[in-house]
Structure formats: C-alpha cells, structure tokens
Model the fold of this input.
Amino acid sequence: MPVKKAIIPAAGLGTRFLPATKASPKEMLTIVDKPAIQYVTEEAVNAGLKSILIVTGRGKEAIENHFDVSYELERFLEEKGKYKEVELVRNIAEMAEVYYVRQKEALGLGHAVLCAKSWAREDPFAVFLGDDIIFSRKPCISQMMEIFEEKKCSVLGVIEIDKNETSKYGIIEGVEVNGQLIEVKDIVEKPDPKDAPSSTAVIGRYLFTPGIMRELEQTKPGVGGEIQLTDAIRSLLKNEKVYAYRFEGKRYDIGDKLGFLEATVELALEREDLKDAFREYLNKLMAVKD
Ligand code: UTP
Done:
C-alpha cells in the first residue's frame, strides 16, 4: 500500500535552544525567512504526502496559526497591492490537509507518534522531525519511499557520523545490501561511543508499516525516562524486516545551535535575492577577522 500520510511530532520542549524556546515553538524558528516546520511540510508535500498530522502541545499555537488562513493579513496585503505576498501567505494554508493532535505531556518521541494512532489507522506513514532539514535534488522521503515500495518494510533515513557523536542518535547495527541500503539487525538509543555497534545514525526521516503502532503501545519508558521510538523499532525487528537508507542530500540539525547557524548561512548563500550581498558581507567580515 503506498504511503500517503505523514506525522510531524512537534510537541518537544526544545531545551537545547533555550531561551528562544521558552515561549515560542522551536519548530517556528526561521531559517532565513521560513519556519523550520514549513521546510519539512514542503518536503512531505513534494513527495505526494498531503495528509499531514502535526503532534503539538501547550504553547505551540503558532504552528496552527501558521498553516491556517490569515484573512486580516491577506486583506491588508491586497489593499496595499502586494499580490505576491498574498499568494505566498495563502499557499501555506492550501499546500496540505493539516490535522492536529495534542500530546498532553512530553513523554518522548515514541509517545508523540503513538498519539497519532487513531489518525493513522492501519495505513503506513512517514515521520518527519522538524529538527532535520534536508536539501536534496529528490526529496529525501521520496528516495526512501522507493525502497518502502520495493521491500514493503519500514525504512529509516540514516547518515554516517563521527564515532564520538553516537550518544546523540539512535545507532543501527546491520548488514549492507549495497552502498546505500542496509538491512537493520539491531538499533540502540544514544549509546556511548565505546558501546556503539556502528557510526550509522538514524535522523529524522522514517517510513513505517502500521506494525510500529502495536509495538509503541507495548513500549515502556527507556533512555531519559521517555517512550523511545528506537525501542519500538527494536521490537518491530522481531516481527518484520527493517531497512536503513543512506539518502542523497545534505542534512542540517537545526535543533542544535551550530547546525542552525550552518543552515542559515548556507541557505542564504543559495538564495537568488540574497546571495551576492550576503557573500560580499561574509567576505568583508572574514577579511576583518583575519
Ligand atoms: P528532541 O529529542 O529533539 O526533543 O525531539 P526536544 O524536546 O524537541 O528538543 P531538546 O532535545 O530538548 O532540545 C525530536 C522531535 O520529537 C518531538 C520534538 O518536537 C522534535 O521534533 N518530540 C519529542 C515530541 O513531539 N514529543 C516529545 O515528548 C518529545
């Protein structure tokens, strides 16, 4: 069955980005002029996933407002003759069918995904984490959907990391099928580098068979007292094959301050309207620093 649905968990507290996230959702932090959650939503839509459930929590109302119609703003822009901006604003509200469910307590990523159970029903679905923004010729999730279609199994988006960074990620142990595809044999959440089975790390793109919801229902709190998606994947492996895919594209971890800055600078340097002036500014700045 083809994947048509996407879940975006956005109920986390974003403690790595305080104080910005004290009263504002980290998913609304902007890279140049677009909130992070819009980049991932666009990736989903570009891959044909137009039915999107966002898992929100208290203090995340700005996300709902962003994907809603803003009549006052549109009327104001129309009166000023700013038709390009009217279209820009309206397109956000029209690009997908967006649904919401609230996670009452931030009990972990696995718990956030489980909050979407009745919406997902028995359908396969994608999970996008707004912390990971990926730029690629073909949307990362489309690349993974090809594997899902072929193998009829869950697929995890992975990257190679420095061995000393394993305690930030879910790390897989697997058998290489080819340079990009790995059959997953085991997965561990945030292992110490000395215990990590590899340096292949799961990032925020997943495609799941409905079986993952049954595993999540049984999953007890793990690392950090949270219900971990990684633990549910580990249980899923007992019943189904799971693959990991080294996608083509550049990924930024914008939940981390350095990653956020890198994404901002590199994206600005790609933008037709900004790149020349911004490059000139950076060159001058670096000359002064040298
Ligand atoms: P993170 O591990 O990045 O957690 O969650 P976080 O709380 O947002 O951020 P830090 O680490 O404290 O800075 C990965 C994704 O899962 C969502 C987050 O919103 C983020 O998109 N999440 C996490 C939930 O929706 N609910 C949770 O209980 C935990």
In short: The pocket of uridine 5'-triphosphate is lined by residues 9-17, 55, 103, 106-109, 111-112, 129-131, 255 (CB under 6 Å).
